[in-house]
Amino acid sequence: MKVIIIGAGIGGTSAAIALRRLGHDVVVYDRMRENKPVGAALSLWSNGVKVLNWLGLGDEVRALGGDMSDMAYLDGHTGEVLCDFSLDPVTAQTGQRPYPVARADLQALLMRTVGDDRVRLGMRMTALHDDGERVTVTFADGSTDVADMVIGADGARSLTRGYVQPDGADEIVREYSGYTNFNGLIPADAAIGDLDAWTTYVAEGKRAAVMPVAGDRFYFWFDVPQPAGLPYERSDGTEPLQAAFAGWAPGVQRLIAAIDPATSLNRVEIWDITPFHTWAKGRVAILGDAAHNTAPDIGQGACSALEDTFALGIAVATNTVSVEDTLRRYERSRTERAGELVLRARRRGDETHAYDAEATAAWYASLRGSDGAGIIRGIVGNIEGSPINLGVGAL
């Protein structure tokens, strides 16, 4: 079977690997001209790592992953440790160690595994046409390609998403989550946080955090609640961070000072999409952010896309009635769980960003002296419903 995948991100390339290993002819198209992922790094929790293990990439992903053994929360103003605990229970309860990874490193690995001759960059899709037997994809340069199945992994502003919605359905729109995220990579520095820990400074509904990734680096990120659409130029560099985190703890000031805006600083307004349940139409389906654009507050965005890959691979391997039937079964196996993760991330964002000041104050109070048991329950709860855990869910 010929499969076209639109989008060479984590979801699109992982799906391409899965379908190629099932013996299908797969081509990936992406509008980007080189590997320049949005965001510096990502959290690969146990469910995401398990999918990559299933794809045969366990050793390579382990080499890219940071040694994140502990989690710590610090008071943003004073630097006082509120709690510090081991993440070993996550590994023990889920059967797999999580890894933070640099996004560009993971995406490069996935693209290499798909094959250079199978990934075609600089190609922007403009139209789809399904005649019931084949799907024709048209690109901005006027060229076309034809396949038996098309998977739209074309991101938060997906064109494919609109195509698969029922005629007359309301337009699906992205919704602002209320905050801007700044992220990037810096050399690891124990004066900011322990070298083997995910360290987060919290106060005023804001967060400043570092996580270890391979190469003796920290992935850093800041959350700043603010209106959408505020002006920002790359030449502004870290000025918004200096203003938002003025007077914060020495570790936060050291983190801001370590950032080289010319090398690694991304500014991203955080938006998501209210869950919806139509992911497939005929021989076309969506995957990843196109299907469940999620705020990063529970670290499950990339993992959820990888779960899509697993579900799609299983559906293609085991359902043989028709392409249309296979994609409907893929859709039914994924929309409920993926949508629930979107809503969990929203609820978590409401709690951490002081949209309800009393709720955020209560969360800060709960962190002080905590043994981490409640936080571990939340992390494991996001993982344990994954289809990659055999015997769980619709698959």
Automatic annotation (TrEMBL):
Oxidoreductase in keyword set: yes
Listed Gene3D superfamilies: FAD/NAD(P)-binding domain
Keyword RNA-binding annotated: no
EC main group: oxidoreductase
Required cofactor names: FAD
EC number: 1.14.13.113
FAD-binding domain residues: 2-342
Keywords noted in UniProt: FAD, Flavoprotein, Monooxygenase, Oxidoreductase, Purine metabolism
Pathway(s) this gene product operates in, as recorded in its UniProt entry: Purine metabolism; urate degradation
Pfam families: FAD_binding_3
Reaction it catalyzes: urate + NADH + O2 + H(+) = 5-hydroxyisourate + NAD(+) + H2O
Family from the record: Belongs to the FAD-dependent urate hydroxylase family.
Identification of the protein by name: FAD-dependent urate hydroxylase
